[in-house]
Amino acid sequence: IVAALGKRSVVLVGMMGAGKSTIGRRMATRLRLPFVDADNEIEAAAGMSIPDIFEVHGEPHFRDGEARVIARLLDSGPILLATGGGAFLREDTRQRIRDKAISLWLKADADVILRRVRRRENRPLLKTADPAATIARLIEARHPFYEQTDITIDSRDVPHEKIVEEGIIAL
Ligand code: S3P
Fold first, then answer.
1. Ligand 1 pocket, 85 CB below 6 A?
2. Which positions bind Mg(2+) (predicted)?
3. Is the pLDDT of residue 121 over 80?
4. How far apart are the CA of 73 and the centre of ligand 1, in A?
5. What is the DSSP-derived secondary structure letter of residue 10?
6. Which domains does the chain carry?
7. What percent of the chain has pLDDT over 70?
8. At residue 102, does pLDDT exceed 70?
9. Fewer C-beta neighbours within 10 Å, C or N terminus of the chain?
10. Residue located nearest, by CA, to atom 12 of ligand 1
């Protein structure tokens, strides 16, 4: 469908609540690529939920598992991969994504993110007294990494199809 893609995957990057899974699923259908959600794959590999992995084993353990799962998925052939918000912060993961995929940052404002991540029990990083402040802090720390993606798409409150279309055109 998009010839420029060749055998490369498409990897969606960005904060929780930016719409990576929703947009990713639709984009995958359009591109005729299998959609894979890295968080789901990590849970399947670990046999436990992400909040449980954080609680039982801690974040560093989760991050190592996440990097391994992403490496395996990118080796498995062209896919559309939605990554967890922290994955692109690792140098080895960024390098693998650069080698095998086109990366696309779904960029969302803090207020949009806060509105979308109401079910915080699924997001261990937001189990804090002041989620708005946590989101602001994460955005500040992460944007320099997200800016290293190949493509940036604004994930604002417009119909999903419009964002999908923008992403496909940019590939
Ligand atoms: C995380 C985001 C989550 C999940 C984990 C950590 C992060 O994925 O991987 O809770 O560090 O931002 P989503 O971005 O899909 O919510």
1. yes
2. 21
3. no
4. 17
5. E
6. 3-164 (3.40.50.300)
7. 98
8. yes
9. N
10. 85
DSSP annotation of 78: S
Beta bridge partners of 11: 81, 103
Q: How far apart are CA 4 and CA 116, in angstroms?
A: 33
Alpha carbon of 95 to ligand 1 centroid (Å): 19
Q: How far apart are CA 71 and CA 64, in angstroms?
A: 11
Residues annotated in the binding site for Mg(2+), as ranges?
A: 21
The mean pLDDT value of the chain amounts to 95
CA torsion angle 128 12 51 139 (round to 10): -10
Kindly report the protein residue whose alpha carbon is nearest to atom 9 of ligand 1: 84
Q: Which residues are annotated as a binding site for ATP?
A: 17-22, 123
CA 67 to ligand 1 center in whole angstroms: 13
CA 102/CA 132 separation, integer angstroms: 31
Structure tokens at 121: 């029990």
- The ipTM is 0.97
Question: Which of the pair, 87 or 1, is modelled with greater confidence?
Answer: 87
